[in-house]
TrEMBL record:
UniProt organism field: Noviherbaspirillum saxi
Gene name linked to the record: metXS
Cited InterPro entries: AB_hydrolase_1, AB_hydrolase_fold, HAT_MetX-like
Name recorded for this polypeptide: Homoserine O-succinyltransferase
EC number assigned by the record: 2.3.1.46
Function: Transfers a succinyl group from succinyl-CoA to L-homoserine, forming succinyl-L-homoserine.
Amino acid sequence: MSSVGIVTPQSLHFSEPLPLSSGASLADYTLVYETYGTLNADRSNAVLICHALNASHHVAGMYEGVDGSKNVGWWDNMVGPGKPLDTDRFFVIGVNNLGSCFGSTGPMHPNPATGKPYGADFPVVTVEDWVHSQARLADALGIRQFAAVMGGSLGGMQALSWSMIFPERLRHCIVIASTAKLSAQNIAFNDVARQSILTDPDFHGGDFYAHGVVPKRGLRVARMIGHITYLSDDSMAEKFGRELRNGGYQFGFGIDFEIESYLRYQGDKFSEYFDANTYLLITKALDYFDPAKDYGDDLTKALHNTQAQFLLVSFTTDWRFSPERSREIVQALVQNKRKVSYAEIDAPHGHDAFLLEDKRYMNTVRAYYDKVWQEIDRRHA
């Protein structure tokens, strides 16, 4: 198996205002995206990849740095020639969501009304808003129906939302390590992370750009909190246990344990590249996602108009989006007589398992895309 190689982001500008769930709207916005593979003549082999919290349009392949370094796509083990989502067969699109800090219009970009960065004035966006913007991108690319829409975690929420908002525009929906709504505990973790940013003196109410500073302390703590929830207790124990950095206790409040060093490293790295306002926006979108809310909290009713076939995958040690949450979606789909495949993978890596190499997981996705490809083949027979 090989990589798709060196890739180049593309962008599309949209001047038609995009109405948002909040009642606000966005005009003059840009979406950044990447594509891999070749779109076939009848445009039936397109697959949309929706990204999670700190990811982007850079799904596969690599950017080559001036120093020779390689910036590899966040799902490069999943997408590429001969990989589970085979780009020798499928035309794959990765799109960066509105409000992000990786190219699509977000808080760091100029507000047309003021000429200054949006900052805290960037409107709150929802999963549904992202799906509507992605549909506009698909329209611009001439894709009326996707062979599949796929995502993990927050990306899985978007894939599920696609199946409800545009049921006729996707034939398969692939939802990995996700949920139909956050638990109270998940919302609590997100709020603690947001508070760490909001109370950082360098945040300046979201307008820190004008002050030439970055709320790094808040971002570090937010990332540390998030990272703890992405790992399982078993994986933490296996990687770090109670190992001490210097062989003994230092009897202070610095770094004693290897796990502390690891979390500080992850927090420092995150604070160098991620935007604080984007973090606030994306975690709120996570909190707000609850399609059953408008159906009396009945998920079966919420999924009634879906038409796609579904694959759901969960991981036994994922306590952030537990298998129980995926089984709730499966049950609601079965009650609607949808075709559903479900895999519950016994993996030790926690929520991060959806990004990692696990043969059972990868083979499950590969087998499903083999089926999708056979359907496309039959259409052309």
